[in-house]
Amino acid sequence: MTSEEPGTTSGTRRRPAWVVGSIAAAVLLVGGGTAYWASAAQGDGGSARRTGDSAASAPRDAGDPSGPGIAPGEPDPSGAGVVYRADVKLPEAPATAPAYSVSGEVAQAEVARLAAALGISGAPRLEGDVWLAGEAADGSGPRLTVARTAPGTWNFNRFQAGGDGAGNGAGDDCVRGKDTCGPATLPRDAGGTGGSGKPVSEEAAKAAAGPVLAALGQGGAKLDARLTQGAVRVVSADPVVGGLPTQGWSTKVSVGADGSVVGGNGELKAPVRAADQPVVGAVEALARLNARSGGGGGNPEPSGCASAAPLAADPAGGATDTVPCNPEPRPMKPPRTETVKGAVLGLVPGTVEGSRGLVPAWLFEVAGRDGAPGHTVAEPASAQQSTPGPKDGRTVPGFSYKEDDRKLTVNFWGSVCSTYAVEAREQAESVLVKITDTPNKPGQACIMLAEERSLSVTLKEPLGDRKVLDATTGKPLPRQ
Question: Is residue 387 packed enough to be buried (19+ CB in 10 Å), middle (13-18) or exposed (0-12)?
Fold first, then answer.
């Protein structure tokens, strides 16, 4: 007999290893056109925390699951500094390179196309700000979620724990609040046989992922299927956008031991070309990379001296036999050298026109060490170093708006300790507003007194029947 608290499920249910691996992999893997920006600022206000986003729009791990890439500015996982040395001539830069923005909303037809590729029937339905496809009334069956707003982050899981509509689990006769459970059964969609428990080959996994990638418009993506998680093989696809390779915008597709797709995630909305940016050459980009990764950070630690001894009274007469501390710095671990075998101009995630997008970057191919596979290190290629507005990146949600022809006023809560600015990005069906919070005296205490504030911005076109969306929450603002 097993005992459990109400609201929990019994630990006696068992599934074949490949099914368990499929679910685990899904859990482990689980954030068009040029827009017009206008902005305004106000010299007083306050701060607010970012509200919770939906699960479908939660940020995703941008790195490749098999570990061949290191994101821009990411510290080296080995803990030591790295100096990158090129043993080939690095390419020159073009005068400019395009950036790509991701804006707008995901349409039902786009979700339906992806759902069909995943074997989910039925029309997708909108629940709040998330598109949902699949999932039976009892919560079982395959489930696809897609964030309605760009970039349309999607997550898919073929195996779900169902129920009987009363909160009880599927696959056994457990009753919530009771102490006993009957024999367990497999999920209804467990894929027929239990499988061999071994992951499929890389080629078979890539073939299984093909229809999903085609539905996403990523048929020409660079594929890597080296990663396995139990009986599941993960295909990572780095799409090619505008003829440029990408890193950090990957689609992940998990393939079970029977060759079926059991999980995945990615971005559904396709990036659209925005303004071109001046870029630097690969040589200068490599110098920037080395400036951040060369291991110069941190101070040498003294040795031979106590650093946290308790205070004690001076001995009588002020005499002491203590030898003065004369510390010598401990030697710092020298940075290791890695060899760059080539570089290509590509794209990495960044901020474009105030929202998420892809910016030009140099992708350096680094040779593996001691026979290990090589990997890619990215460094943004913009000739102008980015200068974000608030140093700590805080934004404040609005709670309502009013409009008068082209004048849009957003209401929010703030205090006297910050300066605020509002930006508005116009789209065909909506206007996205973002209120940024810059503390007047960072690090100093501030009275926690919220006041109602408002900021106005002039739009390029009258608001009309377009919705006003808050950039912090991603939700529409009500009219005042």
Answer: exposed
